[in-house]
Amino acid sequence: MKNYILHQLLTWIDRICGSTGIKQFRSVDGSGSFRVQICAHVRPSCLLLLSAAPPPPEHRLQVHLEALQCHFTWDLDSSRSRLLRLCDNLTDIGSEEGYVWLGHIYNLQGFIHHRLGDCDHALAAETFRQTRTSDSDEGPWLVVNYGNLAWLYHHLGDRAQSESYLSKVDSLKAKYPRPSQDRLHPEVGAEKAWTLMKFSKDKKLLAVDLFEEAVTVEPDRAEWCTSQVLALASAHKHSDAALDDDILDKMKMAKEQDPENLYLAVLYLSQRAKKEEDVKDEARELAAKILLNPVGSYSGIKAVLRLYRRCVSDDEAIDLAEEALRKHPDNRYLKRCAALCYKWKIMSHKGGIVDQSTIDRGVGLLTEVIHLYPDSSLVKELDLADVYAKSNHSVPEADRIYKNLLQNVGSLEPVDKQMLYHHYAKYLFFDREQNGKSITYLMKAAAIPLESFYRRDSIKNLEKIRGRCRNKRCKEIEEFLDRLPEL
């Protein structure tokens, strides 16, 4: 084919310049490309230089990197605050030896560290992933890890190391080919799916499809079947309604295939509770089993505390959290869960004043949690302000927290500004009875062009106020809502 194309080019040049005008041709071949150069005397108007030279090495390297399947090519862009929270969440999963997702955790941690500008920790996390794998364990599950390392060394300017890991990826892909050209290798697809579950709803739904592809190839991988169901449930987790029957059937089948997964068992029980089934006794039995297992965010402890709140009581949820803390008094994730239970109890209390000892315990736990999660503490600072607001003696403390947060609002990303403005608007309305100022902050939250619960709820509340037509700012609200763009 190359000789044919060269012949055609020479014929075309000959027609333009004339056979007597060209003394000599030389072809130079490189990397599947060639160039034709006129090297003899021809009329100046007919001098041609036709070139299809090989791309420079840097370009070839970039193309090779962009073709990888790894975190750097999976479109995982997210806000800095979201990445910091995710980093904490990954730490809270735990790192028990033999844990099925441990390699995935290290890979994602390395990517997040890089995105946050910490290449040293990124490299340490990715390399530590390899220390947990012996030479005899090398397989397709390392494709993502090697791909990440190729990108990391590329960003560090170490081309030799980058190309070394690209070579390792190519070797693994040759040894363990994908089932078809339009599908990922199941190990790679499952890791991509697990990773996407940690991001937006759209990515969670894509994760469901990727797990489906992986399970089709290896149907006996119980953790993949379970994770597919968890991704489905996570995409609908903010709904009070039970999941569709077909999803519940998949959840039941996954539970039977993965009976040791107590987190899945709690979620299935929670769905039954949403259908008004009495699951109190089963919830208590599950809670007892969970307390015997290692602590982590995948253990099911937070999910069972939520289930207690729904179908047992806030008080029993607090008792369960305190029992877990007695077994593991230094575990920060359990402290976070216990603080959440106290917040539920205090914020849902109706009639009269909440017992001060309950508020004090809640304040103490929340204060400690804020210090334990310094990079992702905004939500807990807002929780602390809300808890203070329910105490007769601590409203000034709530004011102080909001004042400090609002003074530093310029350093927050849009999603966090929106959350802060929304919380403050609610605080002003319910706890300070400053309706006019509350409206101002509802507008601030709604004005941020970012689709979220906080924006939707702010708009909903503004529409309610406008609909009542009893507030002097109704016309202003109406004009504001009319100008508000749809997202």
UniProtKB/TrEMBL annotation:
Bilayer-crossing regions: none
Entry coiled-coil feature ranges: none
Record keywords: Immunity, Innate immunity, Repeat, TPR repeat
GO BP term, example: innate immune response
GO CC annotation: cytosol
PANTHER family: INTERFERON-INDUCED PROTEIN WITH TETRATRICOPEPTIDE REPEATS (PTHR10271), INTERFERON-INDUCED PROTEIN WITH TETRATRICOPEPTIDE REPEATS-RELATED (PTHR10271:SF14)
Protein family according to the UniProt entry: Belongs to the IFIT family.
Protein name: Uncharacterized protein
